[in-house]
Structure formats: C-alpha cells, structure tokens
Write a structure and sequence with these properties.
With about 210 residues, the protein is of the alpha/beta class. It has five helices and 13 strands. It has an eight-stranded mixed beta sheet with strand order 2-1-3-4-13-12-11-8.
C-alpha cells in the first residue's frame, strides 16, 4: 500500500463489515469503518459492501448522505471504489429488486435469475463457483489459476450495456457478469471476505493498486 491514508469501509447497516476489515488488515491495509460521509474525504480507497435489499440500501445511502459523497469522491476525486455483492449492484442504474435508482456508476441494470420450473438450478445462487477473467486486470490478476473459487450468495445479477466494463464472468445456468471495472470503479458479485485465499488475494491486489 502506497498511502498512509485509510481504506474506508462504508457502514450503512447492510454489510459484512468485520470480515472485510479483518481481511484488509491482514494484507497490510489501514482499514477503518466510515459511518459519516465527511469521512470519505480522507480515504485512499473505499469499499461499498452489501447484503440485503437494493431499495433499502439505496434509501439508507441517500438518507445518510453517503450517496452524494460517493458521487463526489468517486467522480471528481477519482478515489478507487470496490463494490461487493449488493455493493456492486448499487453501482448500477437500476434493479428489478425495487424501484429506487442506483448510483449509476455503471451503465447496467440488475436482473433476477429466472429458470424453468423443472430446472435443477435454484435461486439464490449460493456456494463456490469459478470466475473467468475476460481481460487482464489488477483486481482479479491476469493469470488466475483455473482452480480459483469464490463464494457467492445472490438472487440477482448485473447486466452490463458496455462489454468493456466486464472483467469477469461466472456460469450459473447461463453466463453472468461477476466482476466489472470502469476507471477507478470496480465491483465483484461474490464475497471475497468469505473466499479464503482467493478472496485474500483480491483484497491484496486492490490494496496494491491504491495511491
């Protein structure tokens, strides 16, 4: 990590804060929790976690002022932001899970998995799965081992309009987007904080990229 400034994990009541903070500290980052929007000014990197409902999360981010702060810090200041699971979905324009507009960082919509009634695939998609790396990137690594596994728990997936934003995909019935990147913004659909050494490597890569 090149900076003495902290990596801030946004706490808006819907994320796995403790596990993420422990992982970040393990890989050498100064990791702190942000509960107020003015704290984000000091960050060298921001993590937007999330477990739960899209609309409730967006309402919470707007009511606390975090949504405006994220737009300012991620946009004008170009501070790196990593969205995890629901956090990645919140970075999109909209979601079928609700009616609230998302942050709109990615030209993408969030859709619910849908399978035939007789399908053996059940929603949510839960458990370990592979991520195919689509383009060289510092987050997932250019040479991801074929046995890499990440832990997923989700009923909705991101549908990107811009294929250039897609850096990783996963198969669950059909192929879906499991990792995105645009400039200083990245997102992963899986939980790196629950993905053991593969998740730890992802956090290590994110921290190494920070100024």
């Amino acid at each position: 990590m090149k900076s003495d400034r902290p990596v801030l994990i946004i706490d808006y009541g819907m994320g796995n804060i403790g596990s993420i903070r422990n992982m970040l500290r393990y890989v050498g980052a100064r990791a702190e929790v942000a509960t107020q929007p003015d704290q984000l000014v000091d960050a060298c990197g921001i993590i937007l976690p999330g477990v739960g409902h899209f609309d409730r999360a967006m309402v919470s981010l707007r009511q606390t002022g975090m949504a405006d702060a994220l737009n300012e810090i991620a946009g004008r200041a170009a501070v790196p932001v990593l969205g995890i699971c629901l956090g990645m979905q919140l970075m999109c324009k909209s979601s079928e899970e609700g009616t609230e507009p998302g942050l709109g960082f990615f030209d993408a919509a969030v859709r619910r998995f849908s399978f035939e009634a007789n399908s053996k695939l059940k929603v949510p998609h839960m458990g370990w799965n592979e991520v195919a790396v689509h383009q060289g990137n510092t987050l997932l690594g250019e040479k991801t081992p074929p046995w890499s596994r990440y832990y997923f728990v989700h009923s909705y997936y991101v549908a990107c309009e811009n294929s250039q934003d897609v850096i990783g995909t996963t198969r669950f019935g059909n192929e879906f987007v499991s990792a995105v990147k645009s400039r200083n913004l990245v997102g992963v659909q899986f939980h790196p904080e629950k993905s053991h050494r593969f998740g730890m490597q992802l956090f290590r890569n994110f921290v190494k990229s920070l100024a």
